[in-house]
Amino acid sequence: MLAPEIEARPRAGQLAVDDAAYRNQLAYVFERSTFYRAKLAAAGFTSAEAAGGLSSIAELPLTEKSELRASCTAENPIGAQLCATPAEIVRIYSTSGTTGTPSYIPLTAGDLENWVTASARSYAASGITAGQRIVSTYNAGPFVAGAALAAFDRIGLCHIPVGTGNTERLMQAIASLRPEAAVLTPSYAAYLVEWAAERAFDLAGSSVERVLVAGEPGGGEPAFRAKLEEGWGAKVTEAMGIGDIGVSLWGECEEQDGMHLGARGFVHAELIDPETGDAVELADGVTGELVLTHLQQRAAPLLRFRTRDHVQVRLSECSCGRTSPRVRCLGRSDDMLIVRGVNIFPSAVRDVVSAFAPRVSGHILVRPQAKGVKQEPPLPVSVELGRGVTADAELAEAIRERVRNVLVVQTRVELVPWGSLHRSEYKSKLVEY
Ligand SMILES: [Zn+2]
After folding, report:
1. Which of 204, 246, 268, 424 could be a cystine partner for 233, CB 3.0 to 4.6 Å?
2. Distance 253 CA to ligand 1 centre (A)
């Protein structure tokens, strides 16, 4: 642990620390944020004292990304949540929006320091230690991933950046420089297993002992993960963040039972029912949408921000000694479909299908018949066959049956030949309308 006094602090003690930080954060926001002064006043809270502490946080309104966007003007392209003066801001990251206009994420020097600290704790949870080598495949560019890469320096690793989309360069670096760890998206990690198999490259026998996956959901799905671990001959752990709040806020430890909150003390985590917005009490095994609140942010702090990440919570004791809650990401609500009242994430379908390897390649594509979230059964799913495997009705039926049993959804499985679904060197598209 990089900070055992924080990471292993008993939960009640941490709650008291966080409650004090939250009250300070509220006071700061009331003083400096035109966005929250108006939003909280509209909800009946005219002072930090009136808003209370963490025990009453669920009474405050949720913050949607669209509200922040709507407050942007030519004079203030960051948005009305901006609290800091220009002189205080040392970094402005962007998030790539679906509308094509980027959102800007400003950070003070203190914010940036906290982001890197949290990210370093999250990545160090995987077991990588100072003196080891890590090869990274992110083109951070304008994005918050840049702060995650800074975490590798903080841990004391030798960082070998090779960037995205250059597999030859990556494999050359692995063969020549013998890094102990690699960090990449789960899709790219899966792509490389196939790439290596086609070229008789001994990936499982390479120096890489740890594969750290981040950037998209799915890296925690058991069958998919097992495939990655076998192909790489390495332990796979996940990390997760959200651009507006912080990078790699969560990181999985060697127990591989969900990601610990590495941003402990910087961020408060809640769960809500995504349909109603009602708070869901944190308990072992519960699922819901993750809602995050800054506790020490200065440039543009956010309260009760809806992340659109659906997670399952784990509160059981972890033998690594970290006491923060853990989450397993089930998927993004942007990808979620509802088939006759049942929520379904494409990465979960991929996981069920992956268990049929090597008869299937593990690549799938969900092809909804109607636009929008709500779908009528059966949900069409294309499943790619393994190399040299020919389609047979019995296999399609077995997959359909397994998906029905595990995910409680009726599908129509179409088997497609090896190589016919798109491979990604970055993030996978699992749904196509
Ligand atoms: Zn742990």
Report:
1. 204
2. 5
Structural tokens at position 45: 């809270």
What pLDDT does 427 receive?
80
Instruction: Kindly give the distance from the C-alpha atom of residue 353 to the centroid of ligand 1, in angstroms, as a whole number.
Output: 28
Please count the other Cβ atoms lying within 10 Å of the Cβ belonging to residue 116. 22
Give 257 Cα–ligand 1 centroid separation in angstroms: 7
Task: Map tokens 């994430």 to a residue.
Answer: 345
The HSE-up count of residue 280 (CA atoms within 13 Å, CB side) is 20
Q: Pick from 116, 128, 120: which is nearest to 254 by CA?
A: 128
CA of 202 to the centre of ligand 1 (A): 30
Strand partners, 55: none
Q: How many CB atoms lie within 10 A of CB 33?
A: 21
Full DSSP string of 51-84: H--GGGGGGSPPB-HHHHHHT--SS-TT-TT--S
pTM: 0.92
Residue 178 CA, ligand 1 centroid: distance in Å:
27
Tokens of residue 344, six digits = 């379904």
